[in-house]
Structures
1.
Amino acid sequence: MAALNAAAQSVEARIDSIELLIGEQAHVTLTVTANENAKVVFPGYKRAEQLTPGVEVLDSTATEKKRLDNGQAAFSKVYTLTSFDDTLYYLPPFKVKVDGKTIESKSLAMKVLTFEIDTTKLDQFFGPKDVQDNPFSWDEWRLSFWLSVLMLLLMVLGGWLFVRLKQNKPIITRIKIIHRLLPHQKALKEIATIKADRLTTAEDSKEYYTKLTETLRKYIEERYGFNAMEMTSAEIIDRLTAEKDQAKLDELTQLFQTADLVKFAKYSTMINENDANLMSAIEFINETKLENQPTEEKIIPKLSEEDEKTKKTRRWLKTLIGIIAAVAIALLVYVVYAIYQLLV
């Protein structure tokens, strides 16, 4: 037993048996007496770690604390030792830390004995036996069996749901993208057609101005957003004036007046007058056109209530089939591994 002079602290090592046969176990109890609030750290050994060459530490208990008088306490820990060589072992002192200071116990001795075998009486020993098969145990196979049954049921259910999914045809929605010409592009294209038709002679003036004014009315309706097709020429000019867009209004007013005279008063025009009005229409369109506008329009079809229900059902079936497949695969891996462990 080693004692500290500064305080009533000591560490004691005690072995329950100093002699044991090969493979038997001995227990060393390490007891520290110190202040009950002291921090005691016992030596730690891993399983099968050698305390000294030839002596292994099999196990150790948790630290126990027992209160004593005068504010003292006894801290104890038990180590289980064994050895497989017959000899006398010297066990070195155990080192314990108490409040950061190292205290050593006394050294111990342990003698390991062997026993003699009488080789003249071999009949008393059983001879070697052949390899034997272990008997079938339902307890070992029960879990794997029922998990296999569950896996098969899940596979059948997943297959049935897959067939249902195939029978329930998917809802295919196609988004249409329509390319549109801008208002000024359409108007200029139609004016080019009018010009190409060469409806510029006196006898064709009515048809010429009818097509030209209809083109302008369509352009103004799309450009400014009011129903120019149902308005008179004067109403269109007044509306454009209200829009505070004076670009080429004088030429446009002249064009509409000429067109009204041709259509309603049988007014005859000259070819150069027709060309001038055509150029006025083109200039008005170029002066008032809006560029950099979107030329594509997406048309997304709206699904019916029945189609929405079908789409939701298919989504639910896909999710359920995925979950069932994942669980079935996990069960398959576990069952195969469990059977392998039983067979090896």
Note: The chain has three domains: 2-113, 137-174+302-344, 179-288.
2.
Amino acid sequence: MNGKIGMIGSLVNAATVIAFAIFELIGFNCGSYFVCILLSVSFICMIAAFDAECAEDKKAAGRTALVMSGVYATLIMIVYFTQCTTVINEELGEDAMRVLGYSSMGLMFNLDMLGYGIMALSTFFIGLTIKAENGKDKALKILLLLHGLFFPGCLILPMTGMFIGGGDSSSNGGMIALEIWCLYFLPIGILSFLHFKEKDKM
């Protein structure tokens, strides 16, 4: 059961990253927001499956990663459920839109950055637990650990105020950054799926 949950979570993870990249390119914001909700749920499943198989001496790192995945998912669900409901369905005033609208790069954008920073921490800690027995697992472990480097930027940059008055979050620079992240994170989902598939055969 653990392996199957890991496989499903990883597969959905990879699929949502692909969908997100496509929706960003064609400017389908509602689609981008919705798949991020699915991504957060699948990420918890993937991390939980890794935690379930980690060695006894690495349980603390695994549990830390699992808790962090829940914090990430909570923040992301708040951000994107707000976009898919309140922001889309209600006629908000300028002040409310500045606070609740993701594209205005206000509160919701900052919470999103924090969420993905916490996600980076989660991948770092789960990377510490993986026993790399083959080339695919070694690559996965490296990708997970290096993804943790996103945490400081995601945490600190919003505090500097550099995004205030920066225009629309869907600008070319922002979109390019998101597409690069997708290219980086997609192999994590694919390699995780292959990892759990092999474990499930044992």
Note: The chain has one domain: 2-201.
3.
Amino acid sequence: MNSRRSLAVRPCLKSLIAAATIAAVPSLPRAAAVADTATTAAPSVEEAQRLLDAASGRPEAADDLQVAWMNLAVAQYMAGDYVGAEAGFRKVIELVEASGRMTSPRLARAEAGLATTYYAGKRHDLAVQHFDRAVSLSRRVEGLYHDTQLPLLEKYADALTEVGRYDDALKTQRYALRIVERKHGQNSLDYANQLVAVGRWYALVRAYDASRTTLRGAIGLVEDLKGENAVELIGPLTALADCNRQQLLDPRDQELPAADDQRRAMFHDPMAQVGPALSSNTIVAEGQRSLERAVAIATSPPGVPPAALADVRTQLGDWYQARQQLDKALPVYQQAWQSAAGQTVNGKPLTELLFGKPVLLYYSPPSGWDRYARRPPGEATVLTTTVEFSVTPEGRVAAPRVANDAGQPKLGAQSLKAVQSARYRPRFEGGAPVETTGVRLEQPYYVEVEEEDAAPGP
């Protein structure tokens, strides 16, 4: 269970919005992007640097210097300068620790900012270390089970997952759920939303049965609270469909006859009690029914905003496309395009975000590509091949060629064969699918490091 590359994550509208939302410091007491100012918008890097220069000229104003460094670090993070942000947050930590104020909320915020910077830069091992410290500091400042920790815990669980610490990630998810329970109770929409987050995490680590059990619980809770046609059902319904789609397209799940039994026993989580294994036909029916119900809710009065409607329609189109039901996918994609027309997300046209380039929906990598992934450092290395091709209006791969075989023709040939399995959401122009050339797919391989031949004797 060490690979997630066999499945492409479909970038829905929620993930697009999330990707554009700065979360450097909102995981701790103040939700504003700037950690230590009363404003709701971070200063530019230039302005933050000017404030820092001014504070540095007044040695007696130690507190102001910490604030200035914090603001600069946040501004650099928002500008995508993770190296600068890392240095800035570390400087804040150094200054606070030197002052002896180890319970300062600012120290917790700086650790959270540093962890999130590592997370954004995909340095998950370092992110885990600092998320752990940020959570501990936050608990000292705010106490256990404080809801301002939730954004921090979400990224912490994801970083733990990335480094393969699944049990610890599950504990973090359960802790977040407990926070919501204590604040809002189990009979609340907030609790249902947190169940959806837990269910999506289960699907991420391929614990599909546990994911379905959790998401069905969320659906039932929303139905009890808001009714069977509540717009709040769209989230858990689409999450359930996404879980089922992942399992159906997961080549490893198909290769392991006892995969379901192994996953049932993996976490020993009493909350995620599951029933008998489902057949593929049942999984298909449930997933498609969930998405079609979500679309029906989204289009019924009072309905949802056009951007949200475009998102859920895109998800249904992706379902059909991944199932190779191209005749069903195309009209749904066109409806999604129409809903997205004229809408923007963070200043970008939604049609461009959803349909501006081919989106990988499914890809089965070569068998054994990660066979040596868990070897100790020095015993395995990574070689990456690249295949270039066109994506047809139907979302299929055409005219593939090896652009880089990493010096291993055999690996290039394996990648060339594997890329034929890929299925894409095609690029659209003017509401119609079009061919896209020059698409590339990179395939890594973990290979053994061969010992150098002994030097010949004299």
Note: The beta strands are 344-345, 348-349, 359-362, 380-391, 397-404, 423-425, 427-429, 432-434, 436-448.
4.
Amino acid sequence: MVFDVKSRPVGLPVQDDNGVAWIYEGDALKPMSEEMRRRIYNETGIDFSASICIDAKVDDLDETAIEKFRSNWVEKSGKNQLRTLSKEQLLLDCGAITDAGVTYAALILFGRQQALVKHLPQAEIVFEYRSSEASGPANQREEFKEGFFSCYDRIWELINLRNDRQHYQEGFFVFDIPTFNERVVRETILNAVSHRNYQLGGSVFVRQYRDRLVVENPGGFPLGITVDNIMDRQSPRNRRIAEMLSLCGMVERSGQGMNLMYELSVQEAKPLPDFTGTDDYFVSVTLGGLILDKKMLSVINHIGSERMEALSTDDFLAIDALYHEKPLTDKMRARFKYLASLGIVEHTGRKKICTRQRIIRCCWQIRGSYTCRWAG
């Protein structure tokens, strides 16, 4: 006898009359775990941030946070008529509230402390500063249980309090480079707020050390996103939050924030964002703050701002890999001819590396440096 059993619907576990979804584990039939159910529900891409918090009211939203959002929206759009809108109409126009009520996105971005503690206590950001690797209490800790627009400037102020300057000299000129680039830090925190899973109980953590910043958020990468394709694909877990942040110019809907993080890291000769420690339950991003090689800064300075404006993220990554003698991907190698046309890299010839198999590779280097790589 042959049984044809259809697959379950996307985003929906099949349950019996008692609401139990069964799975096979080896030869045993067991109830499906809550974690597996959550992963299945997430397949549909339901936007939790756009759903309505039934008990929340407009009065649960902080007016100061709303006015910050209004000001940023006016500046981004140039629409001065937004200044004359009532609070309720402004929130309706941006999607923070609907005729059905207040969305979770509105609470996450504008919620008062009492409202967030009551309706969504996991939507908090915890800042910690640690002067050493020793375990135990942090040297400083602040918990932000309020809307993001009420606290994001304060989070940067805390980081900037211990933001040492690193000196780099080019000829007679001395440049100061901060350990933590404000744009990179803000993009990282915005990503954590925009893409975390608010149905999980954890908090967003921002941990500052002397030489690095670690940002962790619950939920793992959205479906279809990996470390390898994170700059090429966009899949916002909380679309309503992303839309509202885009309206006021804090994030780009095109997903260019992550690209910018990589580009600025290369321009400041710092380590690329590191996702070590990321798994199905948490995303962890480490921003290295120390300059790897001051000679690399000289290379970047010689490229000049005009030529850098013509470079893509892939170009920056190719320059970084070539200089630091990292493995070169096909995508990086494909950029060398364009970089050569700008006078940034140069072809230094060909070299046979295996007589028996007659393998010949092109040799490239950054113009003006002694670093040389075989590019295939």
Note: The two ends are 56 Å apart (CA to CA).
